[in-house]
Amino acid sequence: MPLYATKRLHTYRYTAKDAAGRRVRGTAAAEDREELYRQLHREGLYLQSAWERSEGKRRMLRASALSEFCRQLSGLLSSGVSLARALSILSHEEGLSGELKGLCAALLAEVRTGVSLADAMENRQVFPKLVLGMVRSGVSTGRLDDSLGRLALHYEKQRQMEQSVRSAMTYPAILCVMALVVVTAIFTLVLPQFRDVFEGLGDMPLTTRVLLAVSDHLARGWYWLALGAVALGAAFHFLAAVPEVRFRLDFLKLKAPLFGHVNQLLYTARFAHSLSSLYSGGMPVISALETARDTIGNTYIESQFARVLEEVRGGAPLSAALRGVDGFRSRLAGVIALGEESGSLDSMLESVAVAMEFDAQQSAKRLVTVLEPLLIVVMALAVGFIMVGVMLPIVQSYGSLESAAYF
Question: Within a 10 A sphere around the Cβ of 50, how many other Cβ atoms?
Fold first, then answer.
């Protein structure tokens, strides 16, 4: 037993105020919250809220959870319920998931200490920047319920679009898996049964020798192949987190055959939806651009926004600044130009986002109609190659027997 017990320190992110009333945020290590309070007090700071920082990165809420949270909170606020009361009601709402009820309880605890809703949500580290920006904008304009309602509609549309694209790609994915299972079963279970027959027929054609060699490797070392596939997947996962690698992968997503067009439509629709929600919520165009940029999900497109922001700050029209962004559909800049001329930029952004989402869904369906016969052809060629390798030595042996009988 050690002579001295080791104290476990926890890392806290905190919000405090100094003697002048200025808000101070930071990170500190302490045994518990009481020790953190005493530590900050010695530095002349008065703790307002603190939360333990997790070792790993927290996962953002899904679009369905975000839509439900914003819709429920917007409905309560629009009916005249105070923010604290609304969060208290949601923390006990039976229709909400345990995750959302716990989240509402945590937000309520911080709001009651004087922390703003946006800061409390930011402290949770599970809300995207779009939500935080819209909430801050709604609080500043006094239209928080409207901002939350727009967010609920935005994430509901995003969820529907993702589901439609995912469902369209489900059948090709199942077809690929089935093709892999069938070919693997043939090589590992069927072909080994014919080895003695083929060896008794004499010289085997090249096709048959290749099939038997592949069959032997799969039958004897399938676990090495499985481990190799897992290792490749893990290596790809870690490499994709490297900024330079992710940048190149995001570029390929936009330029890949068949899939590039669909990805461009999805990124354009996502940006247009975010910018429309932020701009119509009263946020200045520069701040709206900065927040909407972070919702795109493609580092290659996001890297071009430094030039866009510089041009807009310099007085250039938004449509002209966005026209040169590689990865956005050209229709976006044209519709924004019309919105700038007519003074209805928010509605035009919303209309082009809806149009882009529809085009993305239709493009995904067309992609499936191309992939289905293509995958079937690939499966037919693979099975045909196997059948040729199996039947060719048998046919050749029959031919040899007929020739011997003739002579």
Answer: 22
Residue with tokens 């690939």: 378
Residue 7 has pLDDT above 50, yes or no: no
Cα 166 from Cα 250, distance rounded (Å): 19
| Tokens encoding 79 | 């009916």
The H or E element that residue 51 is part of is strand 46-52
CB count in 10 Å sphere of residue 390:
18
Q: Judge contact between 23 and 15, C-beta under 8 A.
A: yes
Classified as helix, coil or strand, 55 is coil
How many Cβ atoms sit within 10 Å of the Cβ of residue 131?
A: 26
- pLDDT tens-digit series, residues 355-399: 877 887 787 777 777 777 887 888 788 778 777 777 777 776 665
Determine if the pTM surpasses 0.85.
no
State the pLDDT at residue 9. Answer: 53
Structure tokens at 323: 């026209």
CA dihedral 92, 96, 99, 104 (to 10 degrees): -50
Identify the three-state secondary structure at position 180.
Answer: helix
- Contact predicate 382/185, CB 8 Å: no
The tokens 């839509």 sit on which residue? 67
Tell me the one-letter amino acid at 262.
Answer: V
Q: Determine phi and psi for 324, rounding to 5 degrees.
A: -90, 5
Bridge partners of 15? 25, 49
Distances (CA, A) of 344 to 151, 286, 306: 20, 17, 25
- Measured CA to CA, the distance from residue 228 to residue 354 in angstroms comes to 43
